[in-house]
Amino acid sequence: MEYDDRELSGIVGVVSRKAGTIAGSGVKTVTAAKDLLKLPLKFFMQASKNNGATSEECACESKDKQEEGRKNAANALIETLESDVASAQRDLEKAHSDAEETESKLAAKLAAQLSEIEEEKKLLASDLEQAKSKANEAANREGDVKAQVTALKSDLATALYQLEEKSQPPSDISDVQPEEETVLSGPDEDEVVYDE
């Protein structure tokens, strides 16, 4: 799943801060343990500086103080660690909750985008089918028009041929005599016929 840059940087920042908190707790632990290990030597040197007595009573008191100091340091360390761990745990839970919320929002956004894409895909498919249908209709009309044009050309050629046939004169005019001329060529009216 892809995240927006701002949301991704926010998640990375939260996780980085939590990791820093845990790392800081580790450093505190190491420092406290180091101080705890050095504690007996400090008490011993301090006791040696304050009084130079090396009696058994001073050694016992010094030992009791060392034990008490160790316990106090250990308790303080435990409290600090528990507080840091609890704080880190709360921060991690919040970061986890924020990440889940962000993921849920992004999933919903992605689902909406996919739905829109599907709708656009359906519309495009419908438009494509309509375009194909119109193209087929245009092709059919074009075929009909071509057939009509061919028929008109044929009819025109026939009409022109018939017109030319009618407009041509007869091939031999002398063979054709009008009926009027035949009537006139009868006996001459002026000719007188006498009976003998």
Plain-language structure description:
This protein has a domain at 5-119. The chain has three helices and no strands. Helix 1 packs antiparallel against helix 2. With 196 residues, the chain is mostly helical. It has helices at 5-50, 56-167, 179-184.
List keywords for this structure.
0% strand, 196 residues, mainly alpha
Order of helices and strands: HHH
Number of helices: 3
Stretches with pLDDT under 50, minimum 5 residues? 181-185
* Percentage beta strand: under 5%
Instruction: For the record, give the distance between the C-alpha atoms at the N and C termini, rounded to a whole number.
Output: 143 Å
Instruction: Please give the oligomerization state of what you see.
Output: single chain
Overall structural class, as computed from helix and strand content, comes to: mainly alpha
The largest sheet is: none
Please tally the β strands and state the result: 0
- Rg over CA atoms, rounded to whole Å, is 61 Å
Shape: rod-shaped
Average the pLDDT over all residues and give the rounded result: 73
Residue share in helices?
over 70%
Topology:
Layout: H1 5-50, H2 56-167, H3 179-184
